[in-house]
Amino acid sequence: ADGASGAAVPLGFPVSFELFPPRTDAAAIALGRTIDRLAEFDPAFISVTFGAGGSSRDRSLTVLRYILEHTTVEPMAHLTCVGSTHAEANRLVREFLDAGVTSFLALRGDPPKDGDGALGDLGSAAELVQLIHRVQEEREPFTLQPVPGAAAGRIRRRPRPERVAVAAFPTGHPRSRDVARDVDALLAKQVAGANLAITQIFFRAPDYLAFVDRARAAGVTIPILPGIMPITTPERLHRVGEMTGEEPPSSLAIDLEIEPTEEGRTAAGVAFASALSSAVLDGGAPGLHLYTFNRYQEVRSVLETVARTRPHALPLPDTTPPEKTPTKD
Ligand code: FAD
C-alpha cells in the first residue's frame, strides 16, 4: 500500500463495504476516489461483486488490485460458481490468488434467465467454499511452523485463506421461501469451511435478529454480518424489493415517493438505513456491511449518524469534498 488513504476515522464498531466493478473509465476514476475515502473508515474489508458466469472477471480484478495497491484494506473477491466446471472454478480461484487476493465471498450465483438452467459442476456455494480451501492447500500444502510448546517436529498449518465468506438470507432466499432451509444452507456452508456470513439486504431489524437466533440454535457459530444499503430512490427500493422478495416498508416507500428533492430523498434513505443499522448493532450485530452502490456520501452520512448514537462514540472529523481529478483519457 502506498498510503493513499488518509488517517482512519474511528467509528466504534466494525464496518465493511461492497462495491461493484465500474463499466466506464469515468466511473472507474470516480470509484478510485470513493475507495480512497471509504478506506479512511478503516474497514475490515471491501468486497467487490462478480457477474455470475464471469462477465465482470477482469473489471472485478482491476478494482481488487486497486484496493491492494492503494490502500491497506483487505480486498474480498465475490466469486460465483454457477455454470462452471470444476476445472474452470479451480482456474478462477487460482487467478484471484495469483493477483494477491486471499479473501473470498463464495456464491453459487444465479443461472442466466435465458440459459438452459444448467448449474454446472458445483451445485451450491458450500461446494465453492470447499474448492477455495482445496486450491489454497494445493498451492501451499503445509507450512513448517513449529507449534509453540509442542514436541519438536510438530507442525501446524498456517491459517488461510484470510476469510471465506458466504451469503445468508434472513428473510429467506427467494427460491426457497422456507427460512429453515436457509439456516440449513448456512450451516452447510460453515461445515464446508466458511468463516463469515454476510446477509442479503433486509428492511426490518427483527428479521435479522430472529434469523441469527435461529442460526445459533441450529449450530451456526460464524459471525453473521448484517448487509444494509442506503436506498435513496423509489426505483432502487422497488428493485431491491424484487430481488429480496420482501415488501419494502411503506414508510420508506412513501417518503421516497413524496420527497420532491434529491436532498430530501437522500435524507429519507439515510435516516432509514441509519435507524436499521443502530437497531441491529443494539441487538448484538458484530458490525455493519454496507452495500455502497459505489457511492460515498450516503455511506458516510449513515456511519456518521450511527456513530453519533453509539456509546463512547468519537466525533468524525470534518471532511472536505473530494477534489476533482483531471481526466486524461
Ligand atoms: P446458496 O447459498 O448455495 O443457495 C441459495 C439458497 O438456496 C439457500 O439459502 C437455500 O435457501 C437454497 N438451497 C441451497 N442449497 C440447498 C439445498 N441443498 N437444499 C435446499 N435448498 C437449498 N450474485 C452474483 O452473481 N454476484 C455477486 O457478486 C453476488 N454477491 C452477493 C453478495 C451477497 C452478500 C448476497 C446475499 C448475494 C449475492 N449474490 C451475488 C446473489 C447470489 O448469487 C444469489 O443469492 C444466488 O441465487 C444464490 O447464490 P448463493 O451463494 O446464495 O447460493
The Rg value, from CA coordinates, equals: 20 Å
Helix content: 40-55%
Helix-strand string: EHEHEHEHEEEHEHEEHHHEH
Globally, the shape reads globular
Individual helix count = 10
Q: What about the largest sheet?
A: 9 strands, parallel
Distance between the termini: 25 Å
Low-confidence stretches: 1-5, 324-329
Please provide the count of β strands. 11
How much strand? 5-15%
Report mean pLDDT, rounded to a whole number: 88
> What is the quaternary state of this protein?
single chain
- Indicate the structural class: alpha/beta
Distinct small-molecule ligands in the complex? flavin-adenine dinucleotide
Catalytic activity: (6S)-5-methyl-5,6,7,8-tetrahydrofolate + NAD(+) = (6R)-5,10-methylene-5,6,7,8-tetrahydrofolate + NADH + H(+)
Keywords: FAD, Flavoprotein, Oxidoreductase
GO biological process, one term: tetrahydrofolate interconversion
Protein name: Methylenetetrahydrofolate reductase
Describe this structure in words.
With 329 residues, the chain is α/β, with parallel strands linked by helices. It is built from ten helices and eleven strands. The protein has helices at 25-39, 57-70, 86-98, 125-139, 179-192, 205-218, 234-244, 250-258, 262-282, 297-309; strands at residues 15-19, 46-48, 75-80, 103-107, 145-146, 155-156, 163-168, 196-199, 224-225, 227-228, 288-291. The chain has a nine-stranded parallel beta sheet with strand order 9-8-7-4-3-2-1-11-10, with helices on one face. It has a two-stranded antiparallel sheet with strand order 5-6. Helix 3 packs across helix 4 (125-139) and helix 5 crosses helix 6. It is globular, with a radius of gyration of 20 Å. The protein binds flavin-adenine dinucleotide (FAD). The site of flavin-adenine dinucleotide has 23 residues, from strand 3, strand 4 and helix 5. It catalyses: (6S)-5-methyl-5,6,7,8-tetrahydrofolate + NAD(+) = (6R)-5,10-methylene-5,6,7,8-tetrahydrofolate + NADH + H(+). This is Methylenetetrahydrofolate reductase. It comes from Labedella gwakjiensis. Its cofactor is FAD. Pathway: One-carbon metabolism; tetrahydrofolate interconversion.
